[in-house]
Amino acid sequence: MKTRAAAPADVARIFHALGDPTRRAIVEKLSEGPMSVSRLAPPLDITVTAVMQHLQILEDSRLVTTEKVGRVRTCRLEPAGFDALERWIRDRRSTWERRLDRLGEILAE
Q: Rounded distance, CA 105 to CA 83, Å?
């Protein structure tokens, strides 16, 4: 099965989302497991409304999903968004490794 390369717009959106320290803190908290919005706000010392604004950006970048059941909105990490980022990094790494290998061969000659 061939994996789809991350589109440049997807990667830009992911880097934008992770460029904010509050959003990175949200991702860190959610790495512990699913959590309600009301549980995310106090440790970050921000309002629930602010958390929702940050979550919207994380959702748009496909790093987080949220689900509302009754009055509780639960958030969880979305592995697919991180997979796209990982593919993008892996592709860049392999390109640079090939270039450095070639440079090493040239210098060895």
A: 33
The residues, any chain, with a CB within 8 Å of residue 75's CB and separated by 6 or more, are: 26, 30, 34, 35, 36, 37, 40, 55, 64, 65, 66
- Classify residue 59 as exposed, middle or buried by CB count within 10 Å of its CB (0-12, 13-18, 19+): middle
Per-residue confidence in pLDDT tens, the chain, 109 aa: 444 555 666 889 999 999 999 999 999 999 999 999 999 999 999 999 999 999 999 999 999 999 999 999 999 999 888 888 888 888 888 778 787 778 788 888 8
- Domains (ranges, CATH) in the chain? 8-108 (1.10.10.10)
pTM here is 0.77
